[in-house]
């Protein structure tokens, strides 16, 4: 388990939500192979949708670029092990 070893690069999430994001990511790495980024991302998205309502997006991998719009207070980008994690809630129109 890698909990507590994450390095946050950028976030505007409340601290409690950040801790949950990193904890769920760590749990996902225990449940899925580190190369199965799609299953890891799906698990994190499902957990956030259940806890905070639908509309969450999750990207897991390494060396990826992105450009997106997110709801205020719902964005985090961090490293855990060899993977990067991007979690955010999309803007509701």
UniProtKB/TrEMBL annotation:
GO terms for cellular component: cytoplasmic dynein complex; microtubule. Keywords: Cytoplasm, Cytoskeleton, Dynein, Microtubule, Motor protein. It comes from the Eukaryota. GO terms for molecular function: dynein intermediate chain binding. It is found in: Cytoplasm, Cytoskeleton. GO terms for biological process: microtubule-based process. Its main location: cytoplasm. Belongs to the dynein light chain family. PANTHER family: DYNEIN LIGHT CHAIN. This is Dynein light chain.
């Amino acid at each position: 388990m890698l909990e507590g070893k994450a390095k946050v690069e950028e976030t505007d999430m409340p601290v409690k939500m950040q801790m949950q994001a990193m904890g769920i990511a760590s749990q996902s790495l225990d449940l899925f192979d580190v190369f199965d980024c799609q299953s890891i991302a799906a698990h994190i998205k499902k957990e956030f949708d259940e806890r905070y309502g639908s509309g969450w997006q999750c990207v897991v991998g390494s060396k990826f670029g992105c450009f997106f719009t997110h709801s205020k207070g719902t964005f985090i980008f961090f490293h855990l092990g060899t993977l990067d994690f991007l979690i955010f809630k999309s803007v509701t129109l």
